[in-house]
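User: Sequence recovery, please. Input:
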């Protein structure tokens, strides 16, 4: 079982003094699904725990992840979060991470759980809302793409011809696991395109976590990258992520989160140096 160790927003009394509000620590809001909610677990060393340790006594890290939720199902939660963040007594929100797509991109039958047009519209709605809220005019936003999944390769080890391998892989490509794998890459690429469209605001940046994960395991294991059979896709000839990257093929373990921790902090502090821990 995962331990849920994280900050929750405290209910502030209407009569809160101005001095207590002034002394309230600023906040980072982490918004997403289980990959966010469980990122505070000490066993897997996720980015929620990492940020809480980096910004101890400087920033309150708010866990707004919900396991199993999609971008559509999170709309009501998002509205609540914005209402709390823009309340007169609210502490400033310095950073807002949006880490979605892991559930939305999963294939259920013949289509994604939340098809791309709906998913992308939801993401744009989240971005536009934050960017147009006067009380959040200084909030910076990071769009984090979903990572790949880790499909196991079931192979008897017998030698096969190139044609036999092709036939087997074409069959596997029709399965929901491979479709989900490629769908997550497509959603990742699409999120990076959305982030690029909002780049001119100076307040939105995309983190291609899908690519960082693949690049990291290829470099660590000394593999040669093959775009036709990328790591974790489950096709014959593909590599699987070794132990330590995933807990179950979908959720992240220490190495998987380690890539996110490193790349997220590097991206945020390069884009907005004023958000480095030592500057706050």
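Assistant: Recovered sequence (280 residues):
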């Amino acid at each position: 079982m995962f331990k849920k160790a994280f900050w929750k927003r405290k209910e502030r009394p209407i009569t809160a003094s101005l001095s207590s509000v002034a002394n309230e620590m600023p906040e980072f809001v982490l918004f997403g699904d289980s990959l966010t909610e469980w990122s505070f677990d000490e066993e897997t060393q996720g980015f929620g725990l990492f940020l809480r340790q980096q910004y101890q006594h400087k920033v309150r890290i708010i866990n707004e992840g919900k396991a199993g939720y999609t971008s559509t199902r999170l709309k009501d939660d998002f509205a609540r979060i914005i209402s709390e963040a823009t309340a007169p007594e609210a502490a400033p929100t310095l950073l807002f991470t949006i880490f979605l797509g892991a559930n939305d991109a999963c294939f259920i039958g013949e289509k994604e759980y939340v098809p791309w047009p709906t998913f992308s519209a939801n993401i744009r709605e989240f971005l536009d809302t934050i960017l147009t809220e006067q009380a959040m005019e200084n909030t910076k936003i990071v769009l984090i793409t979903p990572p790949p999944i880790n499909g196991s390769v079931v192979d008897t080890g017998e030698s096969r011809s190139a044609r036999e391998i092709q036939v087997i892989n074409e069959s596997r490509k029709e399965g929901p696991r491979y479709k989900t794998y490629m769908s997550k890459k497509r959603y990742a690429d699409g999120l990076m395109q959305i982030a690029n469209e909002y780049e001119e605001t100076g307040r939105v940046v995309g983190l291609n976590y899908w690519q960082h994960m693949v690049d990291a395991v290829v470099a660590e294991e000394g593999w040669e990258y093959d775009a036709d059979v990328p790591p974790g896709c489950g096709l014959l000839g593909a590599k699987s992520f070794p132990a330590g990257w995933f807990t179950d093929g979908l959720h992240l373990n220490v190495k998987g989160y380690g890539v996110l921790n490193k790349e997220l902090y590097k991206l945020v502090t390069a884009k907005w140096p004023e958000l480095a821990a030592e500057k706050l």
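The chain has one domain: 18-279.
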